[in-house]
Specification:
The complex is a heterodimer of chains A (about 110) and B (about 120). Chain A is about 0% helix and about 55% strand. Chain A is built from no helices and eleven strands. Chain B has strands at about 5, 10, 20-25, 35-40, 45-50, 60, 70-75, 80-85, 95-100, 110, 115-120. The chains are: A mainly beta (about 110), B mainly beta (about 120).
Chain lengths: ~110, ~120
């Protein structure tokens, strides 16, 4: 099974900062990598699919990149409403859907 | 507007059974692949299982932790998805989310979740 390792597990940053989260796969997963945002007490929401495609309606300050085994999720200018836990997620044709452990983002 | 509303959660003893329902509206349910994703208290997300649309064969696939104990079904006339959970274990305690998939690999729309507590 492919393992997804997400880092850091938590992150504290100031409003306006650029924030980056990394997700590493245990083997090459092409670009089959998605990112979700989960605010406290709420269901997760899809933000980015297939590594770098922004879901319709998601603010452009969110972006994703990468290929192979290393992927990054970036918030270009952190806003107070971005406080949440972020998860990466991989999919293959077994089928298997694997989530990273999550990164909790806080405001400094 | 896409809406997914789960129901049927509650407290059940180890070894017991429970069935969750998910009422869908606002999209073409019959043509949509559906999944269940769960989240144990204070923990991360875990995929439970997926059911393809009937047009795609209606195939059901479940993750290893629940294989052989959980199954899914759907009633396209009622726009409802079901999760039948048998032989429940304490480690099955979680919020269970019903999820609509517009692509095979993504969880696009989520319900608000139903809490299942397995405890004696």
């Amino acid at each position: 099974d492919i393992q997804m390792t997400q880092s850091p597990s938590s992150l504290s940053a100031s409003v306006g900062d650029r924030v980056t989260i990394t997700c590493q796969a245990s083997q090459d997963i092409n670009k089959n990598l998605n990112w979700y945002q989960q605010k406290a007490g709420k269901a997760p929401e899809l933000l980015i699919y297939d590594t770098s495609n922004l879901k319709t309606g998601v603010p452009s300050r969110f972006s994703g990149s990468g290929s192979g085994t290393v992927f990054t999720f970036t918030v270009s200018s952190l806003q107070p409403e971005d406080i949440a836990t972020y998860y990466c997620q991989h999919y293959d044709n077994l089928p298997s859907y694997t989530f990273g452990q999550g990164t909790t983002l806080e405001i400094k | 507007e896409v809406q997914l509303v789960e129901s049927g959660g509650g407290l059940v003893k180890p070894g017991g059974s429970l069935r969750l329902s998910c009422a869908a509206s606002g999209f073409g349910f019959s043509g949509t692949w559906m999944s269940w994703v769960r989240q144990a208290p204070g923990k991360g997300l875990e995929w439970v299982g997926r059911m393809k649309s009937k047009a795609s064969g209606g195939t059901i696939d479940c993750g290893a932790p629940v294989k052989g104990r959980f199954t899914m079904s759907r009633d396209d006339e009622k726009n409802t998805l079901y999760l039948q959970m048998n032989s429940l274990k304490t480690e099955d305690t979680a919020v269970y989310y019903c999820v609509a998939q517009t692509r095979a690999g993504t969880f696009d729309f989520w319900g608000q979740g139903a809490l299942v507590t397995v405890s004696s």
